[in-house]
Specification:
Order of helices and strands: HHHEEHH
Helix content: 55-70%
Largest sheet: 2 strands, antiparallel
Structural class: mainly alpha
Distance between the termini: 27 Å
Number of strands: 2
Number of helices: 5
Radius of gyration: 18 Å
Mean pLDDT: 94
Shape: elongated
Length: about 120
Amino acid sequence: MPWEFRTDVPIYTQLIAQIQQQIVTGQLTPGDRLPSVRDLATQAGVNPNTMQRALTELERLGLVRSQRTAGRFVTEDETVIRALKEDLARTQIRDFLAGMAQLGFPLEEIVSLIQKEGENL
């Protein structure tokens, strides 16, 4: 996956978001071993300390686990992954609804537009 970064958000939070995205989309599957901090940092073009900070936060969130001598692995707990996926979906929905409200659309009209677009898929 190509790493892409914006200038208006801290790099480590973007790393967290991109790794989370890889987990919920199945690019990283439960039990997958992650590359070393140095390898990931090199791939992303970031400082190893920045990557370490992101991975530490992913561990705190329960998405990644460490084994002392074997490295880091994606959690095998499907409920944690499903909860993350649903949380990310809710965030997308809230952002979308906020944008539509700024355009002046009431909820009923938003639902109608979504249904019409869904018919075109």
